[in-house]
Write a structure and sequence with these properties.
The complex is a heterodimer of chains A (544) and B (517). Chain A is mainly alpha-helical and 544 residues long. Chain A has 25 helices and four strands.
Chain lengths: 544, 517
């Protein structure tokens, strides 16, 4: 009996003690309570309570402002610990959008690690602070972003024309008016690309004689470059530049983003929303963060993802930094359309392109990774050679139709994918812009008046010649080896007999393909009849 | 009314009554006034709700801690705790996919003490499952299922099943990945009779497995129908069923003469302590038979109550003590460890491994060999076997004693050793060398259904206990051996399933060795 009484007594006292502990945890030791107790507004201490921004349209309730009190709508002049500081100036009112829409993290949470998503079982941790502008990618899809070369040209023009004298861009440049009144001489252009600017700015500038004497006039080419520069300034420093780099390295040759791009690599439309729990960090050195994963993966993909088909691209640290930033911005969140910004509407409802559609940008965006930034071709370890499409000998014999067809249909069975609208997503006018760009790289095609099929050579003789002269590189039955596959249906459909004839005749400078009109140490000179026979023999693969 | 006799005005009386109201409220709490005389004290005992459930006097044998270790009360106490915390959670929980998950997050982060309450609920639920296992083992090992308590053993099995069902249905409610895939596994186990019907080629006509799954989920997949179903079962149907079964269970304990005790319990306990009051010196003469109400005699009749003590307060303190201890355990666990909540349920991202709740992982381990045998066959055999125990073991020796019966503790120990060795040997063999499917890829599934590690273990145990029956010439001895073996098998398989199975149900020494996707 006494034993049971003591059991009851001790258990009850234990329960009481634990309840007191729980009450203290709940009411005293919550970090946000201490933060709010330490914070002061202008009128004195602030009320200690849970705070949240509810955005019914986005179905979010962001409790971040429970600690970040100064960022809550309507709060001003809150002082205290660093965490209660106000948000820096930005175009979006937190009252309308909340926090997690841009920054990600766990909106429900009221404790730091949970809220920042640094806990297991939360699929979208906060975007690292230094890539904070990547959050724009949740909604925004910056359109017509050119490659780095074009962007750099714009920046240089802006600099050369001394626009910084009056205008401030990303915290640089601009002068105060004399006496300091009425602000800067010219408006801040840091987000001109997002807010828009007067298209008649040049005429208006010209009208001011002072400006015209000091800075004007500006020629049309420079004005076009300035437009590129202004469009790229959307209030998210570095983000458009990072996207431009993505459009310079040819990443879209293998990766689709929003439906346009190759199929060899994973679709990157939502690569920034990668779930750490589904990411293998076992080969990542250092801290197991997504940032480290992306950076080490970009440096050497196969080391982080064994068996990855992605080659090491030989990127610089700076490029890796930019690409990591861009990958974090590939978020494409599913918000109601009412919340979509203009650029996303333009891109996804009106068919406007995320990349600039000039030939140079199209070429670097889709082709550069394999064919080289200037069409010089590339070789990656463990992969067959990628042809030098900028080779003048090639371009001299390849007609525009041949090039356009090769791009549209690709080379079935080979690495070259089809880029037509249904497959890779490129439109006919974009493909012809790429063809024009190739012409700028390697010169025009020679006029060809013959029909596409004219060779009437002796197939049997051609077969013998092929075995002796060609099979060593192109394979015994034309299936390719060190050199291209000649039995490829796509190639044979697009190539005219003239193309084949002249290629054999002249060879291709800068590659292993010799010209056969002159003898060399390894092959005799071939007569035009013999070459015609070879062409006819190669054609036999087409009929099968 | 004679106004002359009225000494006070009505207004005055009103004021007086108001003044005395608190005292009178306190007095009327006791139906026969404050228990300050012998008479009112005894009426207090007669009208007491606690004593309504219990006999007025309790045998001292039942009050020994080692008689039961309080696990039965632990089950009841955890049920009450889950009931109270569950009702509190219902104020915030919203049973709809995705919204359910958000509401759990809200409970976690912003509902005052919400996380604490949820933790208590979760721990009490687990404690209840453990308690039910322990309680069943206690009743078995003290042979307390014997006459006249056979039927209460069956009711206890009903409570066992309802407890597991309650825990299982609660598992889905948070609507996170853990919940979603555990229930998917559970639903697939419900569908496992298909293994037989498929093998016989009659699934188109007679799809009992598919029907079970449909009944459970209300749909082909775990979705909103399943959630509503599980919610309704969890908060209404199963608790009601459990409460009703509990009422019968408790009532039968009293009517069956309290807890089982050996015939010589009185001699073993010795004379009652000197301060026991009142002491009965004679056996009561009255029987219900004389009253011509019932046939036969109730178990309490004809026995001297020398070794009984008043239930109030002796048993009252004991039960309340265990009750508070249960709360203490739950509170401690709730402060120490949070209830898990994984990512929002995502049908497109399967958990690998997807694991059922821990108490089903032993079965899931068997399911990995044969879904039907692990999910339906062996559990049915075990349940039927357990249900038949009181009707097969009609012996008398050892009732009310731990490991009572021929063989006793030594037999239980050797059976435990054998049971562990057998299950470990079969598991090690199957993990190391694979099973029939790995050796003969073309083998019909029906063969594996009947010859797999699960059935093999069960057969070894059955043969072993048959041998024990012959050796001791006692059914009780065989039952002791079989029950002990199955208990060992359950524990080992559960531990293997919980700690040593990784993606694709492969064996791993630790989750650190699991390969990533």
């Amino acid at each position: 009996m006494n034993k049971n009484k003591y059991l009851l007594l001790i258990s009850s006292l234990g329960c009481l003690a634990l309840l007191l502990v729980a009450a203290a945890q709940e009411n005293i030791f919550k970090p946000w309570r201490r933060i709010q107790s330490a914070a002061r507004a202008e009128a004195g201490p602030i009320e200690v309570k849970l705070r949240q921004i509810v955005v019914p349209g986005l179905r979010t309730a962001d409790r971040c402002v429970t600690c970040h009190v100064g960022m809550a709508p309507g709060e001003s002049g809150v002082t205290g610990p660093k965490v209660v500081a106000a948000h820096k100036r930005m175009p979006h009112d937190p009252a309308d959008f909340g926090c997690t829409v841009c920054h990600a993290g766990q909106s429900y949470a009221t404790e730091k690690a949970d809220a920042h998503g640094d806990v297991p079982h939360w699929p979208s941790p906060m975007i690292p602070a230094k890539y904070a502008y990547a959050g724009c990618g949740s909604c925004h899809t910056h359109v017509r972003v050119p490659n780095t070369t074009a962007l750099e040209r714009g920046r240089l023009v802006f600099q050369r024309l001394d626009c910084y004298a009056c205008h401030r861009v990303d915290g640089r440049g601009g002068t105060l008016r004399v006496g300091g009144a009425h602000g800067m001489e010219g408006p801040d252009l840091s987000s001109a690309g997002a807010t828009g600017y007067d298209p008649r700015w040049y005429e208006k500038h010209l009208a001011k004689s002072e400006w015209k004497n000091l800075f004007g006039p500006i020629n049309a080419a420079d004005r076009a470059d300035l437009a590129v520069f202004l469009d790229s300034h959307v209030g998210a420093p570095g983000l458009v530049e990072a996207k431009a780099l993505f459009h310079s390295l040819g990443c879209r040759g293998c990766h689709k983003v929003n439906g346009v791009g190759g199929d060899d690599g994973p679709d990157l439309t939502r690569a920034g929303q990668r779930d750490p729990a589904l990411t293998d960090f076992s080969r990542v050195t250092g801290e197991r963060t997504l940032e480290n994963w992306h950076k080490q993966h970009l440096r050497d993909p196969a080391r982080i993802v064994p068996g990855s088909a992605m080659p090491a691209m030989g990127l610089t640290d700076e490029q890796i930094e930019q690409l990591t930033f861009y990958i974090f911005s590939l978020r494409h969140s599913n918000f109601p359309e009412a919340y979509w910004p203009k650029d996303r509407i333009r891109a996804e409802r009106f068919g406007e392109r995320e990349f600039a559609t000039d030939g140079a940008t199209l070429y670097t965006t889709f082709c550069a990774a394999c064919h080289g930034a200037n069409g010089e071709g590339r070789r990656y370890p463990g992969m067959p050679l990628f042809p030098a499409v900028g080779n003048p000998d090639f371009l001299a014999v390849a007609s525009d139709e041949f090039l356009a067809q090769a791009i549209t249909r690709g080379r079935p069975g080979r690495r070259m994918p089809a880029w037509g609208e249904k497959e890779g997503g490129l439109r006919p006018e974009e493909i012809s812009a790429v063809v024009q760009h190739l012409r700028r790289l390697g010169g025009p095609a020679e006029p060809d008046t013959k029909p596409s099929r004219w060779a009437q050579g002796d197939v049997a003789a051609g077969k013998k010649l092929y075995a002796v002269n060609c099979a060593g590189c192109h394979g015994a039955d034309g299936k390719g080896g060190e050199a291209l596959a000649l039995n490829n249906a796509g190639l044979l459909a697009a190539a005219s007999d003239t193309y084949l004839f002249k290629t054999i005749e002249r060879g291709r400078r800068g590659t292993a393909m010799p010209g056969f009109t002159q003898a060399s140490t390894v092959h005799p000179a071939l007569s035009p009849e013999e070459i015609e026979a070879l062409v006819s023999f190669i054609r036999t693969w087409e009929k099968r | 009314m004679d106004t002359g006799l009225q000494t006070k005005s009505a207004l005055r009386e009103f004021a007086d009554n108001l003044w005395h109201a608190p005292r009178r409220i306190a007095e009327t709490m006791f139906r026969s006034g404050k228990p300050n005389t012998d008479r009112t004290r005894s009426t207090f005992v007669f009208g007491n709700v606690f004593l309504h459930l219990h006999p007025a006097r309790t045998h001292r044998w039942s009050l020994r801690w080692c008689t039961t270790w309080g696990v039965g009360i632990l089950c009841g106490a955890s049920f009450l705790i889950t009931l109270v915390t569950g009702v509190l959670l219902m104020f915030y929980y919203k049973p709809y996919p995705d919204v359910a998950y958000q509401s759990i997050k809200d409970i976690h982060f912003v509902v005052p003490t919400g996380q604490f309450i949820r933790n208590i609920h979760r721990w009490a639920a687990n404690l209840m499952v453990i308690g039910v296992f322990l309680h069943m083992a206690r009743v078995f090992y003290t042979a307390a299922y014997r006459a006249p308590r056979e039927f209460n053993w069956l009711i206890g099995m009903g409570l066992f099943i309802v407890t597991l069902a309650l825990s299982f249905t609660g598992y889905l409610l948070p609507w996170d990945q853990l919940a979603y895939w555990a229930i998917t596994i559970g639903a697939n186990i419900a569908q496992s009779p298909r293994e037989i019907t498929d093998a016989l080629g009659i699934t188109d006509k007679f799809d009992i497995g598919g029907l079970q799954r449909q009944l459970l989920l209300g749909s082909d997949v775990v979705g909103e129908e399943a959630l509503i179903r599980f919610y309704l079962l969890h908060v209404m149907i199963l608790p009601l069923a459990l409460a009703m079964l509990m009422a019968v269970h408790f009532w039968r304990i009293r009517k069956d003469g309290g807890l089982a005790r050996p015939d010589d319990a009185d001699q073993r306990l010795g004379p009652p302590p000197g301060d026991t009051y009142p002491v009965f010196t004679e056996a009561p003469q009255k029987t219900y038979q004389l009253a011509a109400v019932v046939k036969g005699r109730t178990p309490a009749v004809g026995r001297g109550p020398e070794n009984t003590v008043p239930t109030m307060p002796h048993l009252f303190y004991a039960e309340l003590g265990v009750f508070m201890l249960t709360i203490l355990i739950c509170l401690g666990l709730a402060i120490w460890m949070d209830a898990p909540l994984k990512e929002l349920a995502n049908p497109n991202v399967p958990e690998n491994p997807a694991k059922a709740p821990w108490y089903f992982l032993g079965l899931q381990e068997l399911v990995s060999y044969s879904a039907f045998m692990g999910g339906v066959g062996i559990p049915m055999i075990v349940l039927i076997g357990l249900g038949l125990i009181p009707y097969l073991d009609r012996e008398k020796t050892g009732t009310g004693e731990w490991f009572g019966g021929p063989g006793g503790g030594r037999l239980v120990a050797s059976s435990a050793a054998f049971g562990l060795a057998a299950v470990l040997a079969v598991e090690v063999f199957a993990i190391r060398f694979g099973w029939l499917r790995e050796w003969f890829p073309g083998i019909p599934q029906l063969v594996i259904t009947f010859i797999n590690p699960g059935t093999l273990i069960a057969a070894i145990y059955a043969l072993y206990s048959l041998r024990v029956v012959r050796r001791f010439n006692s059914v009780r001895a065989g039952a002791l051996a079989l029950f002990t073996c199955f208990l060992c098998g359950f524990v080992v398989l559960t531990i293997v399933g919980t700690y040593f199975r990784g993606p694709n149900w492969h064996f791993y020494w630790s989750p650190a060795d699991w390969p990533m996707h």
